[in-house]
């Protein structure tokens, strides 16, 4: 939802006049689409059908790449906001897009942390560790 807000707010401005917003649009739309595809994959439990793919590793790499590229998109978006813009509504939307890009960056960073823990197997609880010990 936050990624959708980023690209919707940028798309609702005259972003084509500023080259920096092209990068922000690319990053936000690309990762929004891929995130929706991963969500549908897990919702329909398709990862169980493709058991050959190491899903925890794939998700960790995806989240790490999204975090790094959203850092660049956030910095680009925030640096390109001009408070002396003659179009006040463009300023408000671009500033809001910068804020939501920061939130998306933090969310992908947290998701990277948790997917790293899942990949390494550090996310087990007491029940799974008890079963693994006695098997």
UniProtKB/TrEMBL annotation:
Pfam families from the UniProt entry: MARVEL
Organism ancestry: Eukaryota, Metazoa, Chordata, Craniata, Vertebrata
Boundaries of every MARVEL domain copy: 1-120
Any one Gene Ontology cellular component term annotated for this protein: myelin sheath
Protein name listed in UniProt: Plasmolipin
Membrane-spanning segments: 20-44, 56-81, 96-116
Record carries keyword Membrane: yes
UniProt-listed PANTHER family: MARVEL-CONTAINING POTENTIAL LIPID RAFT-ASSOCIATED PROTEIN (PTHR22776), PLASMOLIPIN (PTHR22776:SF9)
PROSITE patterns assigned to the protein according to its UniProt record, in alphabetical order: MARVEL
Assembly: Forms oligomers.
GO biological process, one term: myelination
Species the sequence originates in: Steatornis caripensis
Family the UniProt entry places it in: Belongs to the MAL family.
Compartment(s) where it occurs, according to its Swiss-Prot or TrEMBL record: Apical cell membrane; Myelin membrane
GO molecular-function terms, A-Z: structural constituent of myelin sheath
Keywords from the UniProt entry: Cell membrane, Membrane, Transmembrane, Transmembrane helix
Gene this chain is encoded by: Pllp
Annotated membrane topology: Multi-pass membrane protein
């Amino acid at each position: 939802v936050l990624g959708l807000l980023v690209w919707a707010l940028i798309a609702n401005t005259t972003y084509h006049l500023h080259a920096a917003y092209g990068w922000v649009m690319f990053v936000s739309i690309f990762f929004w689409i891929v995130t929706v595809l991963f969500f549908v994959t897990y919702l329909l439990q398709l990862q169980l059908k493709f058991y050959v793919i190491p899903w925890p590793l794939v998700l960790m790499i995806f989240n790490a790449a999204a975090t790094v590229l959203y850092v660049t998109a956030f910095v680009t978006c925030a640096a390109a906001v001009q408070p002396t813009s003659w179009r006040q509504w463009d300023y408000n939307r671009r500033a809001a897009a910068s804020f939501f890009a920061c939130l998306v960056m933090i969310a992908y960073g947290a998701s990277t942390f948790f997917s790293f823990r899942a990949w390494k197997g550090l996310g087990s609880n007491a029940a799974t560790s008890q079963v693994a010990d006695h098997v």
